[in-house]
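Support request from a user on the community tier.

User writes: "When I paste my structure tokens into the form, the page sometimes reloads and wipes my input. The last time it worked, I copied everything first. Here is what I submitted, just in case something in the input itself triggers the reload:"
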């Protein structure tokens, strides 16, 4: 039977929980950024491109027979598909960032509540710890690649 000689102080435990929660928020942000990709087409649906969160081109799909339209027309369609994909990727990045900011604001309020509760309180006066919202576990997002 192993028993701690000096049990951890409740304030330390609560602070460590808040730190772990903040680290989990950033891990989720990085995972969301690394797994996010967007696919878009041109207006004729003959060219589709996929870009990741960093706007790197990760895939191109060209409809059979498209090569007969000529290089200039193909270039225009490819540019249109890239512009559409980049616009969608920006919307997605903004949504991910907004969700992360919202979660960080909640965590910041929890820290402020904890500090206010402990300021001026004697070291032995410890109230109930701050309840942190539970984070959803990472689930593989449905593929948005339609090609």
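"...and here is what came back when it finally went through:"
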């Amino acid at each position: 039977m192993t028993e701690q000689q000096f049990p951890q102080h409740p304030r330390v435990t609560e602070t460590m929980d808040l730190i772990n929660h903040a680290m989990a928020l950033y891990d989720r942000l990085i995972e969301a950024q690394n797994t996010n990709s967007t696919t878009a087409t041109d207006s004729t649906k003959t060219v589709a491109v996929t870009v990741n969160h960093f706007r790197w081109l990760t895939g191109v799909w060209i409809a059979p027979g498209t090569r007969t339209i000529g290089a200039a027309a193909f270039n225009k369609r490819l540019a249109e598909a890239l512009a559409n994909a980049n616009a969608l990727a920006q919307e997605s990045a903004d949504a991910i960032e907004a969700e992360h900011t919202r979660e960080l604001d909640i965590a910041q309020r929890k820290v402020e509540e904890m500090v206010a509760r402990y300021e001026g309180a004697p070291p032995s006066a410890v109230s109930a710890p701050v309840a942190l919202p539970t984070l959803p576990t990472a689930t593989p997002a449905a593929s948005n690649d339609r090609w």
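Agent notes: The reload is a front-end session timeout and is unrelated to the input. The mean pLDDT is 85. The beta strands are 37-41, 47-52, 57-62. Escalated to web team.
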